[in-house]
Amino acid sequence: MNDAKLAPTPGNVFSFSRVKCLNQCPLRYRYRYLQGIKEAFRSIESYLGNAVHDVLEWLYSERHRGREPEESAMLDRFAAGWTENLDDRVAIVRVDDSEESYLKTGREMLIRFFQETFARDQSETVALEQRLSIRLSDAVVFTGFADRVGRTEKGRLFVIDYKTSKNEGDGSEFSEGLQAPLYAACVLGDHGEEEALAGYHYLRHGTTRWQQVDRERAAQLLERFLDLANEAAAAGEFPARPGILCAWCGFNAQCPAAEVPDRFSGGLRRAERNGRRLL
Ligand code: SF4
């Protein structure tokens, strides 16, 4: 391993993904955030999520510029981006699945979004893919990217996070409880508002769930995140926590504790072919 090429995340910068990673598997957290090792593959589910997010960003940026994109142009853009960015780091973890099935799912999600949500959406876009950052203590900075910040027709500030996952989330901290509400806490401070809405839109289901974040809740959310970040910063042991997510973990070819069933071994095979780690 060439340690000189490794790039650990700055010790004081904490994102929601970072604390979630520690919660899911401390060893993966150590590899990724403390040692700065890059995962040897990315799952096609993650690739699909990025490809769809790129198109959603394009849709709203076009409208923000006064243009009304057509559904066919959206699908052309999705197909072109899919082909252009697909490389040998993308792995189909479920060995019985095919690239075409994910491409089809992406098209279906976008068509549904376009027809049921985008075409009727009267909200104003304030920012797309906005980087948010707030210092929580001398030792902790919270950072994240909000998919879209906007204002409803009635002028209410909102943050929305687009999800391409198969299942809708629940209210727990590492599902819907923290991420978008934390982003809302940041933007209401940035915009000097008393409250903001935090939303999750599930593209496979065509559903949106909203939470209200006022100043009091914002303070609670940021305080809770600071606790989680302080726990992460103080962690001294990083045990492996093997489970179903090992199949999607880009360290599974180097991790001595990895548990990867044959039917979900597409990522492991790709990592072995790619030499375990791509820098
Ligand atoms: S392969 Fe499993 S146990 Fe090993 S680091 Fe990844 S998630 Fe953790």
From TrEMBL:
Residues 14-256 form the PD-(D/E)XK endonuclease-like domain. Pfam families: PDDEXK_1. It comes from the Bacteria. This is PD-(D/E)XK nuclease family protein.
